[in-house]
## 1
Amino acid sequence: MMIDKILRTLFFLTACFILLLSYGSRAEISAEEKEKIKNAIPEKALAQPKQTRKILVMNLHVRDGEVGYGHASTPCGNLALELMGQETGAYEITVSDDTLMFKKDNLAQFDALCFLNTAGLLCTDPALRMNIL
């Protein structure tokens, strides 16, 4: 049983890695890629939470002080996280690249913060940076 869970997880991670390598610099995910991601998603959570959790997924990419488009794999990661949450019922995500989401009131809505393919100094406001800690 445990081996089955490990193998499913390894398969999922391998599929995601292959998709990321093949993704290139395209901004959209093809129907074929979406199907591959969907097929790699586990059918249920390994541990069922008492309630659905909320996760803030931050995608901000800053290079030389300028906000950029980030990694080409980011849309695949966002889709994988979204589908996994929907399929397992374990969590729901909110995707953002807005640093104002780091305000205390905004962060209070979430159970977790995921930095997905972020790069650079995301936030220069000391108060917002402290809210993350």
Note: Residues 2-132 form one domain.
## 2
Amino acid sequence: MMAKFDHPNVMKLLGVSISESRTLLIIMPFMHNGNLLSYLRNNRADLTVENENMTETIEEMAAYLLSICLQIARGMEYLASNQFVHRDLAARNCMIDLNHVIKVADFGLSEEIYARNYFRQADMQESGEGPVKLPVKWMALESLNDGVFSEKSDVWSFGVTCWEVFSLGRNPYPGVDPFSLMRYLDGGERLDKPQNTACSQEIYCIMSECWDSEPWKRPTFSELVTVISASLQDMAGYLDLTCPSVRADL
């Protein structure tokens, strides 16, 4: 199915190959700027505006970071329209090409380097090949409690991904153990507003709507694209988003 994907904000599958050891290899375009999580962390100093009086600079940074979220939402809107559920949307699974276009990628192909963000639950593995890695800090309540995945569970993950963007690559739920997260969320707790001058209350509200305990109350990706686009257009000096490529002058 991946071979049929054709959207500027979704990673394209170029081909597959089988190695001599009979390992399946997936061939995708080279992403010059790596994954979004590393990009945010490596450029954290340049993306941080510490002086709250620099209103114009803060607006420009908010627009840039929100434009990243918009590109991810557009990619996810396309996947949802094709009845594809990602299940592992996160900043680490979004890639950035040479022109700074964001590509939703890594459809279940997460790297071991991020294993600390997962917990292992052997009793969920039906194939008997070993424990399953679950990205619990990005998962919706219904996914954690009942193993249910849908567009609306991807929307929850999108909210966490937006939180990563505006926290400039910090780990979600700091101090909360993965095994305690289900109880934490069931108790009504959610991620706090990122400590970033570029994250307004309006932007945080967009994230929060993605974390409603009732899946049907969460927005669709089409609705998120509309809301985020409108928010960007309301910003003074917002970036031109007529095409999906939005580049920051870092």
Note: Residues 109-115, 119-127, 238-250 have pLDDT under 50 and may be disordered.
## 3
Amino acid sequence: MFTQAFPATSLGASLARRFALVQLDDWGIRPGAPLRDTVALLVAELAANAARHGRVPGRNFELRLLYEHETAVVRIEVSDTHLRRPDPSAVSMADLDADGGRGLALVEAVAHRWGVDDRTGPGKTVWAETEPVGGS
């Protein structure tokens, strides 16, 4: 398991992705592995959302990664202190000319499953899991 707090900024989101890649190296998930690319994308999108939409001044967001070696499932959890929760049932691709709005649609497309849970204290945890080896 890996857990680290990051500042709720674009730099913090970038650092979260970089730290996640280092953790994947420690778990033996090397560059070029499809699982690595999937996790990198999911961390990037969830961390960017926490920094952009979940930001509360003076508060960090937290990244947690869990790896189930037998099934090769990685669970990504990003927790922030903002009370607004994304609605998984309302995810859709944004206008193709828009500057943003595709993050959770990408998560929906790439993750095996994802959701939003309450957390202890204020805020929520947005999580995503990768596809198990051999599919579902």
Note: Residues 34-52 form the longest helix (19 residues).
